[in-house]
Fold each of these.
Amino acid sequence: MGTNPFIDADAPPPPTRRYRLTLKNTGQVFEVDPGNLPEHQDGACGSVLTVLLANDIEIDHSCGGVVACSTCHVYVNQGFDTSPNPIEEEEDQLDFAPALRDVSRLACQFVPNGSVDVEVEIPIWNRNEVSEDH
Ligand code: FES
C-alpha cells in the first residue's frame, strides 16, 4: 500500500459492511466484501480506487494513490457521507481538480464504510479509458 511520508494522518478505516459500488459511467456494479477487499498497491485499503482497479477500470492515478495529485478525482453521487471527511492534503489536491463539485473526492482516499450502497462517476475529462462500451 503506497503511503506519502509527508502525511501523518491515519488512513481511513476500511469498510465494515458489504455494499455495492456502482460506476455511473459504465453502469457496472461491484460487490465490496470487507472480508475480501481487493489488494492493490495504490490507494488506501478499501478505497474506491482499489475497487475500480481490481475490476480493470483504468482510472488515472498518477501519484500512485498517495494524495499527491488530483487525477483520481471522482464524483460520489451516492454514499458521499459514508467515508471520513477528506484530510487537508486531499482538499488541497482537489483545489487543482477541474470541474470540481460538492461531491468531489479523490478515489484513492474515499473509503466507504459500507452502510449504504455507493455510486461514483469519473469526470468527463478523466474518462480516457472508461466508456459506456465496457
Ligand atoms: Fe494521486 Fe489519488 S492517485 S491523489
Note: The chain is about 10% helix and 15% strand.
Amino acid sequence: MTDVTLHDTLCALTLTLVLTGPRMVLNTRPLITTPLIPYPMALIVQKYGGTSVGSVERIGAVADRVARFKSEGHDMVVVVSAMSGETNRLMGLAKEIQKNPAPRELDALLSTGEKVTTALLSMALGERAVRAKSFSANQVGILTDSAHNKARIQDIRAEALQAELEVGGVPVVAGFQGVDVQGNVTTLGRGGSDTTAVALAAALKADECQIYTDVDGVYTTDPRMVDGAKRLDQITFEEMLEMSSMGSKVLQIRSVEFAGKYKVPLRVLSSFEGGPGTLITTEEDTSMEAPVIAGIAFNRDEAKLTVVGVPDNPGIAYRILGPVGEANIEVDVILQNSRGENSTDFTFTVARGDMEAAAEVLTPVVTELGAGEVLTDDHIAKVSVVGVGMRSHSGVAATMFKALADVGVNIQMISTSEIKISVIIEEKFLELAVRSLHSAFGLDTVED
Ligand code: ASP
Ligand code: MG
C-alpha cells in the first residue's frame, strides 16, 4: 500500500492550480529517447544523487555532463543530494549530542548537506565557463507544511529560477529541503531530493526530469537475484509504483506519485554508464511485442497473523483490523474465507517489525470474540507480477500459478489488483519463485 494521503492530494491539487494551471496539452515536443536530447531547446531538470556527487572528481563529471547539455542548447535546472554518506554523518553528530533532537534543529542540520553540493557544483560549472548559481529551498521558494523531517511540498515559486533561466544560467537547487510559512527550514524525508526534482519539473513544465543514480535504470526484477534481469526501456507510473512499493527502491515513491499526477516524464539513468536508462511515462507500450508483465517484484518485509476460530458474523473484520489500524499498523494482504459455518480463520500480513505489536493488540480482541488464538509467522515473503498488460490479457494468474506449481512452491495467500497479482509464500522459496516467474513470463534476457 502506498502512502498517498488526502493531505498529499490536497497539496497536489493546490500545486496544480497555483503553479501550473490546468494543462491540457503536455509535452507537445517528442518524447526524449536518448539522454543526449536530439532536438534543441528542451527544458530538462536533472537530479544527481549522493553517489553521483560523492567526491570532487564526481562533481566535476556532473559539471561536464551539464555543460554538454547546455552547449547543445538545452535549458538546464540541476537538483543535488548531499554527498554520499553526508546526511547519515550529520544525523550521527546530532545523536551524539541528543537522543531525540528537536525536529526543527535536525532539519536545520540535515539541510546543510545539500547546500554544500549546490555551491561546489556551481563552482565546478563556473570553472567550465557555464553560468551557474546555487539556490537553497528558501531562495527558490519551495514552500512546505511544517511537518519537520517529513514535510510535504505545498507550493513552488518558479520566478527566481525562471529569471535565472532567462539569462541563460543554470540554477543548481538543493534537494530534500523546503521552507514553511514561518521561514523554518524543513526536510522532505530520506531520499527526498527525487521529489524536489519532480516538483520543480512540474512547476517549470520541464520536458523531462532525469534522475541520475548508481543504477542504469529500472529492471524486470532485482538483478542481484536473477542474472537474466533486463533493464526496461520504459514503464508506466502505475507499474513503477507497484514495483517500488515492493522493494525496488530506485526512486522515492512519493516522487513517482508526484510525477504521475503531473505527467512529468521521468527518466532514471546512471551517472557512471551511458545508456538511455528507463523512461517512466503515462504512455503504455502498445506494440505487438509489448510484454504483458513489466516485472516481478518481491518483498521480504512481511509477517503473517492468523486469528484462529473467529465467529463468522458481520463486523468481525472490523473488530480485528480496527484496533490494528488504531495502533498505526499498516495491513497488507488480507484473507478470510467463510465456509458458512460458525467459525472461520482470519489472516492478514503486516510489516515484520509490526508483527509483535499487532499480536499484542489482538490479545484482548481474541478474548472478547471468544476466538481460539493468534498465530504468527515471520518467515514469509510476497512475490508479485506487475503489468498494465494484465488489463487486456487473460491467463496471467494461471501462468503464475503454474510456474509456482512446477517448482513446488506452495501459495499461502493471494491478492490481486487491476495490474498486479501477489502471492504470499514461505520465505525460503523466494528466490526460486522469482526466478521461475521471471522466466515463465518471458522476461529473461535472450542471449544472442
Ligand atoms: N540527502 C538526503 C538523504 O540522504 C536526501 C536524498 O539523498 O535524496 O536521504
Ligand atoms: Mg538519494
Note: The first helix runs from residue 6 to 20.
